[in-house]
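Friendly challenge for the regulars: who can give me the structure tokens for this chain first? No prize, just bragging rights.
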Amino acid sequence: MKYQSAKKRGMSNGRIFLASFCISLAVLLLIAGGIMLALFHKIGPEQNSAAAEPETEQAALPYQPDAKTALNLLVISVQERSDSPHAFTLCRFDPTANRLLLVPIPPETITTVKAKKATFAQHYAYAGSQNVQLAAESLLLCDVQRYIRISRTGACALIDTLGGLTHTFAEEYQTPRVTVPAGTHLLNGELLYEIANSPPKNEPPDNWRLTLAGELLTQRLNADADAHLDSLMSSLWNQTDTDLSRFDYTSRRKALTYFLESEEKRVEIIPLSGSWNRSHTEFVPNEAILSELRSIFSMKQ
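First reply, four minutes later:
Bragging rights claimed.
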């Protein structure tokens, strides 16, 4: 899997990693799966007989996703399920492009919903998840079909379902709550979440979270994930608030597994660039980045 970081993309374009760890983890739900290619069937000799009716079987072609399998999803991150959100991310799963795109949106981002101009956080406080979906649609001028609202507990459960992260520490790592000896360790959900939210000294917190999230995605999103697909989705429905349905799951399963089998699959994270007001309570995205994202999220293949 290709994982594009802000350093690789170049800091001059203003894109830095601002995605929260549990947002990135929530987005794992959209791409966890395995693949079942259609088999090619050979025509038996008796079917080639000139005297017989032509009932030959054509070779089945491998599955190819189409535009209908793409999905725009809003992920709402909270500490506890009853809390107000502290982060939002717009996600686009597009198997035809072999890409999962994540766009972290600051809660202070200004947009207009039904003539009400407010921040994402205020739109949520006013009318909940569906209203903030409308805010996302207003921002990027596209349909946002589904949302997932995920807490720390849900994120930890999903990490455990995926199998955790194997990570190597060059030296002993300490947080206010745990100490991890130097060496290679398998991190479960609780430990990984704790470490992800306790960055090393002088390390930007969002970059640190995203580095670990990228490792998890790279390690666990492969063809072997198919064995965990059903349990992962059960964990999703049990641990989150979402309008992502079982029909969404079954109708896109082949597309998910196609994505996992692709050697060209990639996860990209493109934060919004823009300007803040003096009190840092309102954020206005740049039109250039909005134009680019609007063309991607509204794309018809």
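The chain is about 35% helix and 20% strand. The CA atoms of residues 6 and 16 lie 5 Å apart. Your move, everyone else.
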